[in-house]
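Moderator note: this is an archived Q&A kept for reference. The question asked for a predicted structure of one protein chain; the sequence and the answer are reproduced below.
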Amino acid sequence: MPMKKVLGLVLLLALVVFVARAWEPDRPVEALTARWAQPPSQFLEVDGLRVHLRDVGPRDDPAPLVLLHGTSASLHTWQGWVSRLEQHHRVITLDLPGFGLTGPFPDGDARLERTLHLLAALLGKLQVSRCVLAGNSYGGRLAWEYAALHPEQVSRLVLVDAGGYPRNSTSVPLGFRIAQTPGLRVLAEVLLPRGLIERSVKNVYGDPGKVTPELVDRYFELTLRAGNRAALGRRMDQVPAEGDVATLKRLPMPALILWGGQDRLIPPDNGRRFDEDLPRSRLVMFDALGHVPHEEDPAATVAELEKFLAEE
C-alpha cells in the first residue's frame, strides 16, 4: 500500500478515536440536579427561566449580599465565601442565564440588558429592596451596570476582576477562544474533551496546582447542561466586550475592588482603572492569585470583604 494511503488511514483512525472520546452531547438539567443542586439549592421561575439559586443566612439582614459569577462558572464558585458569610449575612447566589443549571433564555436572547432585567425581577421576587452587589468577571460587569441603573438598590459594590474596560488580555482560555470562533463553536456543541476544560480552568488560576479533579468535574458537567454551549457563543456575539464606563464616575456607593495580580484574562491595570473612576473605591491586589481570586483563595479574599462590610 502506498505510504500516502497508509498515512491517510492513520489520520482517519486518529480522527475517529478523537471524536469518539470527545463526543459529549448536551445533558438534560434533570440529569445534573442530583449532584449540583443539593440543599440549600432551589429553583424559582423568573422572566421565563427556571433560575437555580441559593438563599442562605439570617432573614432579617437589611442589605443581603448578592454574588454574581463569571462566564462559564456557576453559583458554586462562591461557596468558600458563602460558608463564611452566611453566619452573619443573608447571601444570595444564582446561576446566571446561559450558565450552570439555569440554562439559556428559550428565545436565544443573551444580551446583557436581558440579564439585568432578570436580576431586577429576581430581587423583586425575593423581596430584596437593597443589597450589597458583588460580581466576578462578567458578573462584575453585570454588578456595576446594575448599580448604574438602580443606584438606590445597591448599598455597596464589590468588583472581583470585573469586566468593562478594554481587557488587553495576555492569555485567553482555549474554551473562550473556541466560543468566539463561529466554525469551531459548532463542533464544540457536540465535542468537549474534558482536558480542554481542565486547561481552561488552569489558565485562569494564579497557581494551576490548586485546580483539583473535582473542580474540573464541576466546570465540565455544568458546561454540558442543555443549551449552555450554544448560549456561550451567542453571549460572545450579543454582549460588547466594553461597557459604558463613563457611568462609573457617577456611582455614589462605596466600592471594594479585589484583583488577582496574576490575572492574564483581565489584567491588573483594569482594576486600577476601576479604582480611578469610582468615586468611593478601594483596591486590594492579591499578587499571587489569578482571574478568580475568590475561588482560588476564598479565605484571604473574603477577609477583605468582611473588613469592607464592617466599615461605616
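Archived answer notes: The first helix runs from residue 3 to 22.
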